[in-house]
Design goal:
The chain is α/β, with parallel strands linked by helices. It folds into four domains: 146 residues, Response regulator (Rossmann fold, 3-Layer(aba) Sandwich); 107 residues, 2-Layer Sandwich (Beta-Lactamase), CATH 3.30.450; 160 residues, 2-Layer Sandwich (Alpha-Beta Plaits), CATH 3.30.70.270; 235 residues, Alpha-Beta Barrel (TIM Barrel), CATH 3.20.20. The protein has 27 helices and 26 strands. An eight-stranded mixed beta barrel has the order 18-19-21-22-23-24-25-26, surrounded by four helices. It has a five-stranded parallel β-sheet with strand order 2-1-3-4-5, sandwiched between helices. A five-stranded antiparallel β-sheet has the order 7-6-10-9-8, with helices on both faces.
Length: 701
């Protein structure tokens, strides 16, 4: 049972309905009641969401495609952590058979469609209240059972003078001995104890008799089922009035579970829970040990860093459950090419590493790398999906000059990135040129810092067009780097460096200043209604001084704040909903508009989206590019547009490159679009020419 079911500030409710309108109707009612809500549109999604989030309650429609409510309810009840979660079934049928079928499937309650909101809300409150009581009772039972188990102690007494050994009933139970099974308890005990442990106990008793001190010892005893259990025995001395030891009094306790738990803790600390391979911690410890041995033997070792190619596509398209199963399959494959003396580890994500000890030549290392590539290239079928993810391998080799653990790992990483750059599915040995490339990245960072001071950064503008009229409604500001020697550098060549180093914060502020200044200039020239859209990176969005920076730029430029649109990404808001809502509300208080960029490429619950103070939703180009010349394959784009309208949001489509795509957007009542079909991002002077021209393009509006 998940602890957070009781610890959440607000109960989490999963709403499952294949009808969008019905789903939104119920979701808004629950949100108004103060609950957090996640949604699913069929039974299969419901099972996945329930496993992932362990909601406090589930509202489940009966009639759905893919997997109906009855099937979903039974699948959810198969999960131990979801046994106590109340399930309220929504059914359009009020006959006894449908009601009984709901309860047989595991439902807690039912309500007939169309939903009567007051009754529905009361049913939800009752379900959550009963769930809380059930969970508290369940916890109490667990604590009580645990206390009984911990208190299982056996008492024994040994009369030194007569050699009689008495056991309590609990000792017989713990040692799995029947009172009539042996002639005396000494014989029974000896038959259950390993020879070396029996000697250890005799030694402890001898030392106690010699020094008149209590003893505590642990040993193993065998059970009739041939399994061993670990016993902790403690004994104290009883003396007569003359100070002579006459009896031993003691207790025994089964501590097998404690030892197993300690072993498990150690395993968790040193082994990856998903694949069972050594983790990063154990990898580093073993590498240090092998390096020490290599120094003594004056031998070499090799490190192979293995990163899967395009594994992210598997996670994004099929989900993390299948992604995890695929990683397990990869780990099983890698174990096949590992010698007993080697260490194959999972460093994290889709990155693995291998320590090859006692290597004799590069050729031998290359053979191992080729085996790994070959075995990875074989397809793997997981839940009906035939999957392949090749690998990129980087190799570093120790030498008399390089026996530092961290240096060897860095070298293998650099070589692996070189393999990635070559298209993947290959291995590469480290060489000094790769270090030069790393220095190049550092040099790029230095030049980028200078670019800010030397005014080498420029802003280009891509028009945003009204779908109905073809008028320019605004533009998106996109940064470029006009390098004095290398020419125009596109953002994907330097933005990653800016993100990694934190330079994105001052660069982002500069873009905001320049875009607002230029837009205000166009406003003064008569284009008063132009809206400037400015991208905000995750790091910039979460920067402590971001709100103050926006406020100062708005004041300095004098721009109409309603004409400033800040574009945030879906991923930046999902990291912390509460923080995102706070920041966005502060921005809205300044008077600016808020757009969500790249919507649909991550994972957002409708309830979370509904909490964000947004004005506009941008449909990512990934959903537009699939629309063919007949205007087909746009179902996801259509769904996003419909959802945005249901939330009273404006909708902008990115990446429009054809008349067919534009026709699709017009048919589905999208508000604005941008893309190469009209114009790429262009310098300010060229954009001004576009503004003053009468016709943008030869197209139909």
């Amino acid at each position: 049972m998940d602890n957070h079911l009781l610890e959440r500030d607000k109960p989490l409710v999963l709403v499952v309905d294949d009808e969008l309108v019905g789903r939104i109707y119920i979701e808004k009612a629950l949100l108004n009641e103060g609950y957090n809500v996640i949604t699913a549109e069929n039974g299969q999604q419901a099972v996945t969401q329930a496993k992932r989030h362990s909601p406090n309650m589930i509202v489940l429609d009966v009639m759905m495609p893919v997997m109906d409510g009855y099937q979903a309810c039974m699948a959810i009840r198969e999960q131990e952590q979801l046994l106590q979660v109340p399930i309220l079934m929504l059914t359009g049928l009020d006959d006894i058979e449908s009601v009984e079928k709901s309860f047989d499937a595991g439902a807690t309650d039912f309500i007939v469609k169309p939903v009567n909101l007051p009754i529905f809300k009361q049913r939800v409150r009752n379900g959550l209240k009963n769930c809380k009581t059930d969970i508290e009772l369940y916890r109490h039972q667990l604590r009580l059972a645990h206390a009984h188990k911990v208190a299982q102690l056996g008492y024994w007494e040994w009369d030194v003078e007569t050699d009689a050994l008495f056991w309590s009933d609990e000792v017989y139970d713990l040692l799995s001995v029947m009172p009539c099974e042996f002639e005396n308890n000494h014989q029974a005990f000896r038959n259950r104890t390993r020879a070396d442990d029996y000697e250890k106990i005799k030694q402890a008793v001898s030392q106690t008799l010699k020094h008149n001190t209590p003893y505590s010892v642990e040993y193993q005893v065998s059970r009739p089922d041939q399994k061993f259990q670990i016993i902790r025995e403690q004994a104290d001395l009883i003396k007569n009035e003359k100070g002579k030891i006459i009896r031993f009094l003691g207790i025994i306790q089964d501590v097998t579970e404690t030892h197993l738990a300690q072993d498990k803790i150690r395993h968790l600390a040193y082994y990856d829970s998903l694949t069972g391979l050594p983790n990063r911690t154990l990898f580093h410890e073993r590498l240090e040990y092998v390096l020490r041995m290599a120094r003594r033997r004056e031998s070499s070792l090799a490190i192979l860093v293995i990163d899967l190619d395009r594994f992210k596509n598997i996670n994004d398209s099929l989900g993390h459950d299948i992604g995890d199963k695929f990683l397990q399959a990869v780990a099983d494959k890698l174990k096949l090419v590992t010698r007993e003396a080697d260490t194959m580890a999972r460093l994290g994500g889709d990155e693995f590493a291998l320590i090859l000890d006692g290597v004799s030549s590069n050729q031998d290392i290359a053979k191992v790398a080729e085996k790994i590539l070959h075995i990875l290239s074989k397809s793997q079928t997981i839940q009906g999906n035939e999957l392949i993810s090749t690998g990129s391998i980087g190799i570093s080799i120790s030498s008399a000059e390089c026996l530092d653990k961290d240096d060897l790992i860095k070298q293998a990483d650099l070589a692996m990135y070189k393999s990635k750059e070559g298209g993947g599915n290959q291995f590469c040995f480290y060489n000094t040129e790769m270090k030069s490339r790393a220095h190049h990245s550092m040099s790029l960072e230095k030049e980028l810092r200078q670019a800010l001071d030397n005014n080498e950064l420029v802003v280009h503008y891509q028009p945003k067009i009204c779908v109905k009229t073809g008028d320019i409604k605004g533009m998106e500001a996109l940064i470029r780097w006009q390098h004095p020697e290398k020419g125009l550098i596109p953002p994907f060549d330097f933005i990653p460096v800016a993100e990694e180093t934190g330079l994105i914060v001052p660069i982002g502020k500069w873009v905001l200043e320049e875009a607002c200044r230029q837009t205000q200039q166009w406003h003064q020239q008569g284009f008063e209604m132009l809206v400037i859209s400015i991208n905000v990176s995750v790091r910039q969005f979460l920067h402590i001084g971001f709100i103050a920076d926006v406020c100062s730029v708005l004041d300095a430029s004098g721009i109409n704040r309603q004409c400033v649109d800040l574009e945030i990404t879906e991923s930046s808001t999902m990291n912390s909903i509460e923080t995102s809502i706070r920041i966005l509300n502060e921005l809205r208080a300044l008077g600016v508009k808020i757009s969500m960029d790249d919507f649909g490429t991550g994972f957002s619950s409708l309830s979370f989206l509904n909490q964000l103070p947004l004005d506009t939703l941008k449909v990512d180009r990934a959903f537009i590019k699939n629309i063919n010349s007949q205007g087909e394959n746009g179902e996801l784009a259509k769904l996003i547009i419909a959802m945005a309208k249901s939330l009273d949001l404006s909708i902008v489509a990115e990446g429009v490159e054809s008349q067919a795509q534009l026709n699709f957007l017009k048919l589905n009542e999208c508000d604005e679009f941008q893309g190469y079909f009209v114009s790429p991002a262009i310098p300010a002077d060229e954009f001004e020419v576009l503004l003053r021209s009468k016709g943008l393009m030869e197209t139909e509006f």
